[in-house]
Design goal:
The protein is 79% helix and 0% strand. It contains six helices and no strands.
């Protein structure tokens, strides 16, 4: 297995983050233009009643800088320690796929129970990724 294979899920996760970043800018503009939110609201994120769709996108944007940070770290550690194998890459793609599904559920459907389940699943995938790397390093 080529070590570089672990970097492709990183690019995919970054692309998801960039997509939500662009979406956030668009929904904020929509909130101001179509829903009457004052632009001054964004100075301190207070002083108005932002629409629910904007709050959901903002919350999801913040989510992308929480658990996924550990994903970036474990993938980079696997890469720099030459510890990438098929299982590592599969787990990395499974994490990215589950985070994409989490994004869809959160942004489009906002079904809390479904969102919670996929979040828990992605967390366990990430834990498995860390455990797999730890074991590979211990066996070196």
């Amino acid at each position: 297995m080529q070590q570089i294979q672990i970097l492709y899920p990183l690019f995919a996760m970054a692309a998801l983050t960039f997509y939500i970043t662009i979406r956030l800018a668009r929904v904020r503009m929509r909130a101001v233009i179509q829903h009457g939110l004052q632009a001054t609201y964004f100075k301190y994120n207070q002083g108005g009643e932002p629409p629910e769709f904007m709050l959901r996108t903002e919350q999801h944007y913040v989510n992308l800088f929480e658990l996924p940070v550990l994903f970036y770290v474990v993938c980079l550690l696997a890469y720099v320690t030459s510890s990438v194998d098929l299982l590592t890459v599969l787990l990395a793609w499974l994490f990215v796929g589950s985070r994409c599904l989490h994004t869809y559920i959160h942004i489009r459907l906002n079904k809390l129970l479904k969102r919670r389940r996929i979040f828990i699943f992605s967390t366990f995938v990430l834990i498995a990724l860390w455990c797999e790397l730890f074991i590979r390093l211990m066996l070196k």
